[in-house]
Amino acid sequence: MHDGEELPDLLNAIVLADLLVTEDQPSADPSATHTTTPPKAPDDASEVERLRVTVAQLEHALHTRVVVEQAIGVLTERHRLKPREAFQRLRSAARSRGRKVADLAREVVASSTSAFPQLPGELAGERTTEN
Q1: Tens digit of each residue's pLDDT (9 = 90 or more) over 56-98
Q2: How far, in Å, CA of 33 to CA of 17, rounded?
Q3: What is the largest CA-CA distance in the chain?
């Protein structure tokens, strides 16, 4: 159940996450798993080529959004947070480590079914002293 204010805030957060993911800046952590960046149409591309690239970009954005939403759900359940707070925690953890939100979101989702991913303490299931 969402109150009237929470759902628009969640949608705004997800749009922001999509924008953060599409940045062309590489992650500061060279060992980080990078998402494949959506293709870009060359300047001399035909209309059909541009449309194909647009479809690929939209598919990439949709997939990224789904992963971020799943991570918000995991963090919401794990820490008993509102979705907006879960997104803020995810975004803060990504920024403080020079990571993309979507990359860290994938790790959060993976951590819900596997004990192997090492998450930052503020995202892990139990409180840790590690960052």
Answers
A1: 888 888 888 899 999 999 999 888 999 999 999 999 999 999 9
A2: 17
A3: 54
d(CA 131, CA 18): 25
What does the alpha-carbon distance between residue 97 and residue 81 come to, in Å, rounded to a whole number? 22
Cα separation, 92 vs 121, in Å, equals 12
Rounded to two decimals, the pTM is 0.60
Please give the CATH topology (third level) of the domain spanning 45-118: Arc Repressor Mutant, subunit A (1.10.10)
Tracing tokens 């449309």 back to the chain, one arrives at: 51
C-alpha R_g of the chain: 16
Q: How far apart are CA 93 and CA 131, in angstroms?
A: 9
